[in-house]
C-alpha cells in the first residue's frame, strides 16, 4: 500500500492534465450552438471557433490575400516559364487543329449565335465593298477608259470625222452614270451572295489550312500569341488580379462553410498539433503529480 502513494498522485495528475486539455481542445469547436438556461446563454457557448467564425474568416481572407497569395505571386505564376510553355503549346495546338472554323466555333457558342455572328461579318464585308465601289466612282472610271478605247478604235478612220470627242464624252458619261446607278441599286444583291459563298468555303476549312494557304508562318503566329499574352500580363496583370478579390472570396467561402466542415478542415491541418497539446497536458500533470509526492 505504501507504493500507492507514489503511483496515485502522478496518475491522477496525468489524467487531470489529459482531460483538461482534451476538453479545452473540444471546446474550440463544441458546442456548435449557444446553450441557454433560463433565457441566459451559458459562458463559452457556442465553442470558440463557431462563435468567432466571422472573425476567423476575415483573418484568413486577409492572410491569404495580402500575405500568402499576393498580386505579385500570381503575376509571377502567370509569367513563369511553365505557364508560357503551356500558352505557346495551346496556341500551336489551336493553330494546327484539324477542326473546321465552324466546328471550332461550335465549342464556344450555340449554332444560332454562330450564324448570327457570321451573317453580321458578311454584312460588314459587303458594306465595306459597297462603300469602296461607290467611293471609287467606277462609272466615271469606265466612262474615261471607254472613251479612250473608242478614240483609239476610230482614230485614223472615216468614223473619226463623225464621232467627235463631245459625242464620245456624252455617251461615255451617260454610260458611267448608269453604271453608278446600277451599282448603287443592285450592288449589294450581287456582292452579298459572293461574300456568303466565300464565307461558307472558309468556315469549312481548318485554321491551319487557312493560314497555310495565306502563306502565313504558323510558328510566328504562336510566338505572336505568346508575346501578346506576356505583354498583357506585364501591363495589366495587377489591375486584372485586383478583380479576383482573393481576400473577399476566402472570407465569403469560410463564412459559408458549415461549422463541422470547418472543424474537419482545421483538424486535418492541426490534428497532430492538437493531439500533442492533449498529450502534453497529461505529461505536465504527471510531472506535477510526481513533484507533489516530495513536497
What would you say about this model in short?
The chain has 14 helices and two strands, in the order H-E-E-H-H-H-H-H-H-H-H-H-H-H-H-H. The chain has helices at residues 4-26, 48-51, 53-68, 71-78, 81-95, 101-106, 111-136, 138-154, 159-162, 165-203, 207-213, 218-242, 246-256, 259-293; strands at residues 36-37, 40-41. Strands 1-2 form a two-stranded antiparallel sheet.
What does this protein look like?
The structure is a single chain. By secondary structure, this protein is mainly α. It is built from 14 helices and 2 strands; from the N terminus they run αββααααααααααααα. The relative contact order is 0.16.
Shape: rod-shaped
Q: From the helix content, strand content and strand pairing, which structural class follows? A: mainly alpha
Order of helices and strands: HEEHHHHHHHHHHHHH
| Approximate helicity band | over 70%
Sheet-strand content, in percent, reads: under 5%
How is the largest sheet built, in terms of strand order?
1-2
Largest sheet data: 2 strands, antiparallel
Give the beta-strand count.
Answer: 2
**DSSP summary: helix tally:** 14
How far apart are the termini?
Answer: 19 Å
Radius of gyration: 42 Å
List keywords for this structure.
rod-shaped; 2 strands; mainly alpha; two-stranded antiparallel ribbon; 295 residues
Amino acid at each position: 500500500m505504501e507504493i500507492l502513494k507514489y503511483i496515485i498522485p502522478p496518475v491522477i495528475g496525468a489524467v487531470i492534465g489529459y482531460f483538461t486539455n482534451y476538453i479545452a481542445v473540444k471546446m474550440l469547436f463544441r458546442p456548435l450552438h449557444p446553450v441557454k438556461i433560463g433565457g441566459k446563454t451559458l459562458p463559452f457557448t457556442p465553442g470558440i471557433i463557431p462563435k468567432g467564425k466571422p472573425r476567423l474568416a476575415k483573418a484568413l481572407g486577409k492572410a491569404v490575400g495580402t500575405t500568402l497569395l499576393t498580386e505579385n505571386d500570381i503575376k509571377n505564376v502567370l509569367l513563369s516559364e511553365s505557364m508560357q510553355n503551356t500558352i505557346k503549346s495551346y496556341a500551336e495546338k489551336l493553330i494546327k487543329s484539324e477542326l473546321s472554323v465552324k466546328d471550332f466555333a461550335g465549342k464556344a457558342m450555340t449554332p444560332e449565335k454562330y450564324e448570327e455572328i457570321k451573317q453580321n461579318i458578311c454584312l460588314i464585308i459587303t458594306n465595306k465593298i459597297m462603300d469602296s465601289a461607290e467611293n471609287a466612282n467606277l462609272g466615271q472610271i469606265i466612262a474615261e477608259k471607254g472613251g479612250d478605247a473608242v478614240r483609239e478604235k476610230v482614230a485614223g478612220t472615216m468614223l473619226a470625222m463623225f464621232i467627235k470627242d463631245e459625242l464620245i464624252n456624252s455617251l461615255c458619261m451617260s454610260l458611267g452614270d448608269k453604271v453608278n446607278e446600277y451599282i448603287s441599286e443592285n450592288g449589294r444583291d450581287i456582292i452579298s451572295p459572293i461574300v456568303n459563298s466565300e464565307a461558307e468555303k472558309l468556315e469549312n476549312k481548318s485554321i491551319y489550312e487557312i493560314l497555310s494557304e495565306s502563306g502565313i508562318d504558323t510558328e510566328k503566329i504562336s510566338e505572336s500569341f505568346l508575346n501578346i499574352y506576356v505583354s498583357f500580363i506585364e501591363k495589366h496583370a495587377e489591375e486584372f488580379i485586383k478583380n479576383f478579390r482573393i481576400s473577399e472570396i476566402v472570407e465569403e467561402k469560410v463564412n459559408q462553410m458549415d461549422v463541422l466542415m470547418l472543424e474537419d478542415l482545421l483538424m486535418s491541418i492541426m490534428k497532430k498539433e492538437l493531439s500533442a497539446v492533449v498529450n502534453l497536458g497529461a505529461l505536465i500533470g504527471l510531472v506535477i503529480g510526481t513533484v507533489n509526492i516530495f513536497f
